[in-house]
Structure formats: structure tokens, C-alpha cells
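Sync notes, pocket subgroup
Present: LS, DG
LS reminded everyone that the earlier model was apo-only. Rerun requested with fe (ii) ion included. Inputs:
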Amino acid sequence: MATGLEWDEFYRLGIEGIDIQHQKLFEIVGRIAVLDAASSTKEDLRHILKELSNYMREHFHDEEIYMRSIGFPEYGYHKELHHEIIEFVNTTVSNSPTLAMIQTKLKFIIKKALIDHIINEDMKIKLYMSQYKPKTDDCTVELN
Ligand SMILES: [Fe+2]
């Protein structure tokens, strides 16, 4: 089912580890979007939201390690944005007690927390890489 929340090639940074993690975030979000209120329990929802929040933290952590490894100048600012996103998602989810409410807000959450962040901020990492071309051995970070 198309939800409007799918990964798009436009979001690709060309940094493989980060792109794979972004795709995985879209995949988790897609599963929330198609959860069926009639057959899903609160426990199903709690489980998948926990998965999203855990993976988001893991991804941000890896992205921060990557930024540091290449000497990305906006590292501190970018890290702060990650923190704000986690807070924003947690607040929105805890203020939405039902699956239907979360699904309604999901587009807004994802637009702000994932898509806008990739386009406006993560793309700066891509730009930095393309302009400065650090030595390859400066930026070999294992990303899962
Ligand atoms: Fe980021």
C-alpha cells in the first residue's frame, strides 16, 4: 500500500551505511502506517514504536560517529537536531494514545523527523564530502 512515506532515491546521500539505515527507518514507519486497527493490539503498536525509537537512536549515534570521523563542521548543531527529533517523536507518540491517532500524525512526524531532516541537514554531509573529499582512511566507519 502506498503511504506517501516511502524511501525515494532523492534521499540518497551516497554514503552507503547511512542510506541503508535511512531506508530501514522508512521501512519501520511503513509498517506502522499499514497496521490494521481492527486486528492490531496496543502491544503490537507499543512494540513497533519501540523498534522505531531504538533504531532511530542507533542510526543517529552511527551518523554522529560518521560526522566526527570526517570532521564535519556542523557536527555539534546536527547532534542537537537529532536530540530534538527524538524528543519530538517521543512527545508526539505519548500524546497519541491510540493507533488511529498515531497513524493520523504519522505523516507529520515522518515529514519533520525523517524527510525534512534528510533533505535539509543530512544532505549537508553529502555536500561536505563532495567538496572536501577527506582521505578515505579518515572516514571508514562501520555502519550496520
Ligand atoms: Fe542526521
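DG: Residues 99-132 form the longest helix (34 residues).
LS: The CA atoms of residues 1 and 109 lie 19 Å apart.
Action: DG to write up.
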